[in-house]
Amino acid sequence: MIPEVGVFALILALLVAVVQATLPLAGAHWNVARWMRIARPAAVLQGLFAWLSFGCLAASFLAGDFSVLYVAGNSHSKLPAVYRFAAVWGGHEGSMLLWQCLLSGWTVAVALCSRQLPQAYAARVLSVMGFLSVGLILFLLLLSNPFERLIPAAAEGRDLNPLLQDPGMVLHPPLLYMGYVGFSVAFAFGIAALLSGELNAAWARWSRPWTLAAWSFLTLGILLGSAWAYYVLGWGGWWFWDPVENASFMPWLVGTALIHSLIVTDQRGAFRSWTVLLAIAAFSLSLLGTFLVRSGVLTSVHAFAVDPGRGLYILCFMVLVVGGSLLLFALRAPGVGLGGWFAMLSRESLLLVNNVLFSVAAAAVLIGTLYPLLLDVLNGGKISVGPPYFEAVFVPPMVPALVLMGIGPMVRWKRSAPVELRTQLRWALGASGATALALAWLLPKDPGAGWTPLSAFGLLLAAWCVWSTLVQAGKRLSAVDGSWRLRASRQPLSWWGMIAAHFGIGLFVFGVTLATGFETKRELTLAVGEPVAVAGYEFRLDSVREVAGPNYEAHRAHVQVRRDGTHVVDLFPEKRRYRAQEMPLSQASIDTGLLRDLFVALGDPVDERTWTARIQVKPFMGWIWIGCVLMALGGLLALADRRYRASARACRVRAGAGTPACSPEVIG
User: Fold this and answer.
1) Domain enclosing residue 601, as ranges
2) Whole-structure pTM value
């Protein structure tokens, strides 16, 4: 009975979404107020029905209802309850239902938190989001029904993929989808502005906090996915340029450009056409990621479905959304003014160059991801595009982008004199060079240590990101009377968010350079009682014993790590075998520290007392995670800025320039 309630709730959600997508839009066009007023209650009602459907599917999983085909294919009676719940989005149908529920959640949030918007504009925004819901719910009901019955019911489930039986499964997909779907809000705001013909600075101010929220969620989702791959897949790597990793990275790159472009449109009324184009591109790449994962065109640990019908539907839906948006943009953009004037040396110019560089990087990743697929479709054979290509095309645009990241906040709006930058640049460059030289002297320089000109340049670039941010903060907080605490308390949260995010990028670059350039990796055999030396550490296999989990058996090793005769840590890697699928899986054991990670993954037995193993010592690996957390924290701090809670009616567009009068002089 519960599955039937779930299907019925989806049908009701579809009917409400159709009303939400049509009547308010028609009301905004013909200025019928009572039709526009339907938008908010329809959005809330559609969200309630969507989440009711999700709750029914979750209840079916928790109850072990193997008469539901999707439950039987992705669960097991011995599966722990937390993974039975996470299994709701562990396969194709459930993940698409989660996608739709999060979309309805964002829609409800917009409906409840945007009452200060003009009624016609809010109606258009909610109608656009309703249209997206119609397409996704139709897809669920026609091609991906998660409530399809299995007759007769299975006696036992096939179990969740062992790779997905991990705490990362509980948080990584929802956070990633929150970022994916969150860009639909900026997309809807941009399309609503195009439909109304009022592509001014006001829409950028209204959509900016929503974009920050989506970008922060996507950052955390990518972070958790990388950390999950690091310790579960057993390779000891954190980024593999997997096509589905790229599918989440491309919206992040364009979303980063969008955030900075929204700042310029909000503050100066410039980049209006460019900003709405970035909003369209960010959500379009999110839809592309959905197509790549759900259509089955990719072979990846992330790809769930292999169904041409589903892939064709998603492709057609993507073409309709993206093509229609670009057509509307082409019709409306020529009538949009250029916005405020600015000189070559100005904050606007540097942000524009940075936007272009991020867009070029995203395009390079897009080409490398799609080219093998297009070549295969054209019967040109199968090829694989791997890390060498992506590193070769991604790094060049990112280097000047990071350099400009340090200079941009030092430059004034509209026009800046070179002499004003001299002091700040001198301090930042001097400190960066000194830091890079100190690290060059301290780090090992033997041929096997990874010291190369590229790693030296990476350290210089990371030091520049950190020191330029600190110099900016020092100048902003310095005061003649010494009351820097008072000045700090007066700074807007958006400024603190910028400082946190830029500082986090510096730590991230430090971590990437040191962890990849100076790591030590060994694949060897460990015999019980015989130590092996790796990067100054002594690893000794003390014992291997059999243990039983709720739905697996495992061999758990006890590896003692010592350095200079002093005990450092005990590690317990496992080699598991899951009963239902008879699938082996290595569970690495990692000791994480601020300056290094010790990584041990157990392989296969050689004899009763000897096992193969992978041992890695990765310096400063934790700085990668800390940097990503600071980036996401920066976005959330900017989101919490009280100026976003001010009434949008206070924003009055200045004649000609299109700059909102309520915009503060200082931004983050």
Assistant:
1) 520-619
2) 0.92
